[in-house]
Write a structure and sequence with these properties.
Blueprint: H1 28-53, H2 56-76, H3 88-116, H4 118-140, H5 147-164, H6 174-206, H7 217-248, H8 266-292, H9 297-304, H10 307-317, H11 325-347
Helix pairs in contact: 1-3, 1-8, 1-9, 1-10, 2-3, 2-7, 2-8, 3-4, 3-6, 3-7, 4-5, 4-6, 4-9, 4-10, 5-9, 5-11, 7-8
Length: 348
């Protein structure tokens, strides 16, 4: 028997993906993707500030403690409806998705930020994650996009590339640049596969077989919480393993992965840590999961790929950089692609 207030069976309802007219707010999932872009941008800038004062591995772990705790309290406010989104098998798979996305992916992300900065890091992560997701979905799920959506996705990525691709990085040594790109590519894999494709496989292919129907904002929050717990577990075990290894071999190349010497500036870093935790794994990921519940990953990720553009005014406010005409022109092109993607998705 289905719990009170739990989601209705699939046969008794239609999602916005099945029928746009079935929802009173057909643009809601796309709005979630756009809002997610703003939140991820704020998280990127504040994460960059956090890594200046705290170790990246420690910062990522701590934010994955308070963020899911906060969101779990919100989820519990749903009352009996929360049980309608829970199943041991689904929970275990979401833990795996979170371990790849929040764990492996965000550990790499926080390593790339101090090496490349917020702008170049977000460019690599959000752009490379798009082909990672699209190729994976094509071979694994057989998902295809319409020609119009593909064109809009290309326009978005082209605009981002024009706006943000640096001609050169004179302030970065070649070894530092290559190391940062390597971490960025790992983070892109975590987002494209762990946070995108794997989450969609769980919600569309696995959850329905267990009687769990994930649809709507409430489901987005509960999915985000389950994934964050997986990331917290992975990050915590990774931090413990690295510190244990460094006690035995303090000269190991892993020495830069943690600040076990107590040099963290928690007093100056906790406001930025709080900001990146709320904007990223809490509110941002909730909107991200909400958007994915009703759209293919290849539709959502190109919109979120505009995150580096939104980072520009935020970084200016923090005296990180000033935009050039290329950044402004690329921004116009990318925004045009976003508008087109929204309209084309509404029409399908």
């Amino acid at each position: 028997m289905r719990p009170a207030y739990a989601p209705a069976p699939k046969a008794q309802r239609q999602t916005w993906r099945d029928n746009p007219a079935a929802s009173a707010y057909p643009f809601a999932p796309m709005f979630a993707a756009l809002l997610c872009t703003v939140l991820f941008s704020a998280s990127a800038v504040s994460a960059r500030k956090t890594t200046e004062r705290l170790g990246g591995t420690e910062a990522n772990f701590v934010r994955l403690i308070f963020a899911p705790t906060l969101m779990l309290l919100v989820a519990l406010s749903f009352g009996p409806a929360l049980m309608g989104y829970w199943h041991p098998k689904v929970f275990g798979l979401f833990l795996l998705s979170g371990a790849i996305g929040f764990g492996l992916g965000d550990i790499a992300l926080f390593r790339a930020f101090p090496l490349l900065g917020s702008r170049l890091t977000t460019l690599i992560v959000h752009c490379v994650s798009v082909p990672v997701a699209a190729i994976t979905e094509y071979f694994w799920l057989g998902t295809t996009m319409t020609l119009q959506q593909i064109v809009c996705a290309v326009v978005i990525l082209a605009g981002v590339a024009v706006a943000l691709a640096p001609k050169e990085n004179p302030n970065l040594e070649r070894s530092v640049l290559l190391k940062g790109i390597g971490w960025g590519l790992i983070a892109a894999f975590g987002q494209g596969f762990g946070a995108g494709v794997l989450s969609r496989v769980i919600t569309e292919n696995v959850a329905p077989t267990t009687g769990v129907e994930l649809d709507g904002f409430h489901a987005g929050i509960t999915v985000a919480v389950q994934r964050m717990l997986g990331g917290m577990l992975f990050s915590g075990l990774f931090l413990l393993a690295v510190r244990a290894w460094l006690k035995r071999k303090p000269d190991s190349p892993l020495a830069g992965m943690t600040r076990a010497d107590g040099t963290n500036d928690w007093r100056g870093g906790y406001p930025w840590l709080l900001a990146t935790g709320l904007a990223g794994p809490a509110l941002g990921v909730t909107c991200y999961q909400w958007a994915l519940l009703d759209n293919a990953t290849g539709v959502v990720l190109p919109i979120i790929a505009t995150t580096p553009l939104v980072v520009i005014p935020m970084s200016i406010a923090l005296n990180e950089e000033k935009p050039s005409w290329r950044s402004l022109a690329g921004g116009v092109v990318a925004v045009a692609g976003v508008v087109g993607m929204v309209l084309m998705t509404k029409a399908t």
